[in-house]
């Protein structure tokens, strides 16, 4: 019988600090000082985090995390993309984020397309025939860009995992599959954000089965049923309006099948970071982060 690989219970659990200070909508809630954010991440029992709004860089970030027994799980790199492919500054932006990751001793570079103005209003409705899409040439060019950045990251000892994102040109299951086919499978992994994949019309469990070992990084994010229905029905102006309606919610309070997702990850022998993420909340952010950590621990304890 083949070795099933390491248990999912051995995976480090991190948090994305966007729940404290939203990077897309700075006016969504009062700013929380960085020191408070880091103290709360450590207090709640997380092993690490993504960079966040106002975080220091380089050795200062590494020291701030080390002082709290935390690790830098990832740096997020938004690589601008339009219908005809990456913008002229996309590679320079990616290299800057890669340098931040490397200088701070981080692990994974998580890359994603930006909220393109022509696609953001189509979030959760991007499978509609009228939605603007990447041209074939644009997809090929964007794939080459990401391959280049992944190769540079690998030379520094870092993996690159691409994050499909609602309101961008890589959102729907079909777009994710086309992007995966346009990039080097040995160099570019998938950051499966189960919330965004759900908003894009996909089933995260099916994605894990389909992409298997190419899933290198995971964002665990739940989606609130009401705001999702409104977004899909076109009653919301787009992704940013849905964020204001608190599209994302605490783990266990939304529509994702957390238990099924964890079981699927366990079956493929996933051994990367499990990142709890919630972009928006009606609660105090530390309360939402605590709920996410507790719900994940409970769900992990119920794995066969």
Give the helices and strands, then pairings:
Elements: E1 13-15, H1 34-43, E2 48-50, H2 58-66, E3 71-79, E4 81-82, E5 85-86, H3 90-103, E6 108-113, H4 136-155, E7 159-162, H5 173-181, E8 188-193, H6 194-199, H7 204-211, E9 215-220, E10 222-223, H8 225-232, H9 239-244, E11 248-249, H10 258-267, E12 274-276, H11 285-301
Parallel strand pairs: 1-2, 1-12, 2-3, 3-6, 6-7, 7-8, 8-9, 9-12
Antiparallel strand pairs: 4-5, 10-11
Question: Could you characterize what this model shows?
Answer:
The protein has 304 residues and is of the alpha/beta class. The protein has one domain (8-301): Alpha-Beta Barrel (TIM Barrel), CATH 3.20.20.150. The chain has helices spanning 34-43, 58-66, 90-103, 136-155, 173-181, 194-199, 204-211, 225-232, 239-244, 258-267, 285-301, and strands spanning 13-15, 48-50, 71-79, 81-82, 85-86, 108-113, 159-162, 188-193, 215-220, 222-223, 248-249, 274-276. The strands form three sheets. The chain has an eight-stranded parallel barrel with strand order 1-2-3-6-7-8-9-12, surrounded by five helices. Strands 4-5 form a two-stranded antiparallel sheet. Strands 10-11 form a two-stranded antiparallel ribbon. Helix 1 links the parallel strand 1 and strand 2 (48-50). Helix 3 (90-103) runs parallel beside helix 4 and helix 7 runs parallel beside helix 10. The longest helix is centred in the middle third of the chain and has 20 residues, at 136-155.
């Amino acid at each position: 019988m083949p070795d099933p690989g390491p248990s999912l219970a051995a995976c480090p659990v991190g948090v994305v600090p966007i729940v404290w200070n939203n990077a897309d909508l700075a006016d969504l809630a009062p700013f929380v000082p960085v020191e408070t954010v880091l103290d709360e991440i450590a207090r709640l029992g997380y092993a690490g985090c993504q960079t966040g709004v106002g975080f220091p860089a380089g050795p200062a970030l590494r020291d701030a995390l080390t002082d709290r027994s935390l690790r830098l799980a990832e740096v997020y790199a938004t690589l601008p993309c339009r219908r005809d492919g990456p913008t002229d500054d996309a590679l320079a932006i990616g290299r800057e984020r890669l340098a931040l990751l490397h200088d701070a001793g981080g692990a994974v570079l998580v890359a994603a397309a930006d909220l393109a103005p022509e696609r953001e209003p189509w979030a959760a409705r991007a499978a509609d025939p009228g939605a603007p899409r990447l041209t074939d040439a644009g997809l090929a060019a964007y794939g080459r860009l990401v391959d280049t950045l992944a190769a540079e990251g690998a030379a520094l000892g870092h993996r690159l995992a691409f994050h499909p994102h609602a309101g961008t040109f890589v959102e729907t299951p079909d777009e994710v599959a086309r992007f995966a086919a346009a990039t080097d499978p040995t160099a570019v992994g998938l950051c499966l954000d189960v919330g965004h994949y759900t908003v894009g019309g996909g089933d995260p469990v099916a994605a894990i089965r389909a992409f298997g070992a190419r899933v290198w990084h995971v964002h665990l994010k739940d989606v609130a049923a009401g705001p999702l229905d409104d977004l899909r029905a076109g009653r919301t102006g787009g992704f940013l309006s849905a964020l204001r309606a608190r599209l994302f919610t605490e783990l266990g309070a939304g529509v994702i099948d957390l238990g099924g997702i964890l079981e699927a990850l366990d079956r493929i022998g996933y051994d990367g970071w499990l990142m709890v993420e919630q972009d928006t909340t009606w609660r105090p952010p530390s309360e939402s982060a605590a709920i996410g950590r507790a719900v994940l621990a409970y769900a992990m304890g119920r794995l066969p």
